Structures are given as C-alpha cells and as structure tokens.
Amino acid sequence: EAKQLYTAELEAAGSDEAKRAAALTSCHAQIAPKVVNLCRENGGIYIKAAQLVASISGGSGERLIPKEYKQALAVLCDAAPVRPFSDVDAVIREELGGGEKGAHDIFDDFSETPIAAASLAQVHVAEIKGKPGSAVAVKVQHYGLREQMAADFGVLETMGSQVEPLGPEAGNLTWLVRDVRAAIERELDFEGEAKNADKTRQIVRTHICEVEGLDGDGGDDDDEEPGDNKTATPASERPMPKNSVYVPKVRWSHTRKRVLTLDFARDAFRVTDVTLLKHQSMDPLYAGRLVSTLFSELMLTHGWVHGDPHPGNVYVRRDPRSYATQLVVLDHGLYHALSDDVRTRICLLCRASCVAATAGGGAAAKAREEVRKLSASFVGDAMARFFPMLVSPWFALSGDCTVADALAAARGDLPPGVSKEDVGRFLTGLRKDQAHA
C-alpha cells in the first residue's frame, strides 16, 4: 500500500521539485499513522524500533527519517501497549512458580494494573510474600517475546538489506539491525540487568554518595552486599551530597531471566518534570547538576556508562529519611564498560576542551592541539573537529568547528564539506575498531 501510494504520487508530480516535495510530505503524513498502528499491533521489537527512529535527530536532519514519521512514532516512547494480566501471570508462573504458583501466590497485594509499560516489559507493584511493607516493583517481560523476536529480526534484516541511507561506503542497514538485536538480547536477560544494578548500586554507595542508614523504603537489608571498606572513598571526599542518589536494591529471591524484582521507590517522578519539581520545592537546576555529576562520575572515574539514560529511567524524589533531593536511577539493562585507556583519553579530552574554551594565548593553542589529537584518536582526522561536541555541546568552541558548522548543526543539517558518505565511512570505521566504539 505504501509503495503504491509513493509511486503514484511521485509519478503524478513529475519532475517539478516543489510538487515532488509536496507529494512526499503528503505520503509521509498518510503512511506514518499506519506505521504506528503496525508497531502497536506487533509490539515488542517493533515498539523498540519505533522508539529508536523517533529519537534520531541531529546531523542527519530529515534526510534520513522524515519528520512526519518521527513525530508520529514519538507517541510510542511514552505509551507502549499494555499486556493483559493473564500474560504477566503466565511469565511469573513459569519463572518463579515452578509452573504452578502465580503472581498472587508468590507476592502479596500484586497490582494487576501496571504502573509502567515499555517495549519489552511492564512493571507492577507488589509486596514480598509474608513481609508487610516490603513494597517492590516487579518488572515482567512480555509473554512470548523471545520467540517472536527471532522472526521479527529476520524481517527487519531483510528490510535493512534494501536500504543504504548513508551511501555505499556504509553499506546497507543490516549491520545496524544486528547491533540492535545484540543490544536487545542483553536487555532481555533480566538477571544480567540485576547484576548491572548491583554493580551501579555498589559504586554509588562505596564511592559517589554517602548513604545515611538504610537507603530503601522500609524493607529489610539483610541480604545487602557489604561494601569493600578498604577501597571505599572517605565520605568527606565523595563528589555528591549525602542521600542524593538511590539505586533500588535487587530482590534476588524473586528475580529470574524474565522477572526482575526491585525495591519500589515511592513518590518518584521524572527528573524532567519541571512543574512537579517546583511544586515539590525542588530546584530544577540543582536536580540537573545531580544528573550530570552522577553520570559523569560513573563514566569518567569508574568507566561505567549507563547505555539508556533517557527521562523514563532517571527519576527524582525526596529522600524518605533526610528529605534531601534524591535521584532514582532505573533500568540497568544496558551498560558499557570502558577500558582504562578509553576512559583516560576521554578525561584528557574534557580537560583540554575546558582549557581551550576558557584560557588565552599559548595555553589555549596548546590545549586546542591536544583536543584535535585526542579527537582524531577516536574518530580519525576527517571528523575530528566535531567529536568534542559529541562529548558535550559546551566544547563546541574548543575544537576547529566554524560558525558555518554550528549553524548547520542548529538546523539539523550536515556541516559544510561533510557528506553522508563521510558519515558512512566514520560509522564503518567505528565498527571495525570496537575499542573506539
């Protein structure tokens, strides 16, 4: 249907560029809602792919993904379809109940209505059986998702093999589909996510933020992993205020490959909700500083990078004990561990970029040359001038970018002198050198 519409409209427009542009806009507007419905009906990987497409922006502008599609698919970022409780109960029965016990047998007060739904799972609130007050969030993978995924990715790989959006240098999109598949397969392993959550929690509690007493919401901490006191950073030297970060604790007794149970963070809301922040007498700028400090500290000091830190995964609340503004970090399915070499070069790049942008005379010139060399070590000479901006927009003035480059970026266009083929070669080079990636 879509192919027939595009073919007919473009043939009718002939060679007139204005008419062809208008025809394309009309086709995009008609087909985009149908794509949204298709993704909703198929769920799972299709929702995840829709979210990826909706998030694409920047240098590719609208030449890669038309705005009509991005705008239409954006609704799936916050409104993924909810699966029926019978599906949820079936997964819990298979993973935790030995094929016999369901959600209400294993948990107390299990809410059949989820508090959140995403492309791969949905979250329900409950209590650990026999432990009143032990509120937990139970993340349950969508029923049959693993089986559906193999067939879905086969279709997507076939579609990807037909598209070369960045030119022949980058080839078709099969490599992108395969990379996305590898990432999603990691996300589907909730035991792996639980291990990531434990590691993040331990880094925070041992090095980043002093925790006053228990940092849960009243549940027991009997199975809490003890910190390594020999290597722990002294409280006075930690970079973030006391009680300012909370990583919910994993309840391993109720966690399996398709079910993840964590302490429930009450009264938390999205850190991007400025209206609610102000209503709670929280300073949005202070909350923003907490976010930037936490993720910078995890990456630059510990080489531990949260792979999906979007607003739906970073919440904020008042700490229930101290009433301090407290970040709540969720969804630990994707992390990247940086080698010491990569972590060190990123640190040196950040330092040199700050000096280049603020110092004068010889110091600035020396720092600018260091920025160029470090950037080239990551992405090669042709794209080196843009790399500091990928690290932080504030570093735009520390490299060799021109005013024309900045204006193009503001418009969402490729910079002067850079083609889609250049971007394709850059992406291909990254994939060949996984140390850079």
Structural features, described:
There is one protein chain. The chain is globular and about 70 Å long. Helix 2 packs antiparallel against helix 3 and helix 2 packs parallel to helix 5 (67-73). It starts with a helix and ends in a 5-residue tail after the last helix. The protein is built from 18 helices and 11 strands. Strands 1, 2, 3, 4 and 6 form a 5-stranded antiparallel beta sheet that branches. The chain is of the alpha+beta class and 437 residues long. A hairpin with a 3-residue loop joins strand 2 and strand 3. It is 49% helix and 10% strand.
- Global structural class: alpha+beta
Give me the strand/helix succession.
Answer: HHHHHHHHEEEEHHHEEEHHEEEEHHHHH
What's the gyration radius in Å?
24 Å
Cα distance, first to last residue? Answer: 39 Å
Number of DSSP E strands = 11
The parts where pLDDT drops under 50 for at least 5 residues are 218-222, 433-437
Percentage of residues in helical conformation = 40-55%
Number of helices: 18
Percent strand? 5-15%
The best one-word shape is globular
Tell me about the largest β-sheet: 5 strands, antiparallel
Q: How would you state the average pLDDT, rounded?
A: 85
Please supply descriptive tags for the structure shown above:
single chain; 437 residues; five-stranded antiparallel sheet; four-stranded mixed sheet; 11 strands; globular; disordered C terminus
Brief summary:
The chain is an alpha+beta fold and 437 residues long. It has helices at 2-13, 17-42, 45-55, 61-64, 67-73, 75-78, 85-95, 103-106, 145-160, 174-187, 190-208, 274-279, 284-300, 340-358, 361-379, 387-391, 403-411, 420-432, and strands at 107-108, 116-117, 121-128, 135-141, 245-246, 259-263, 269-270, 304-306, 314-318, 325-329, 335-337.
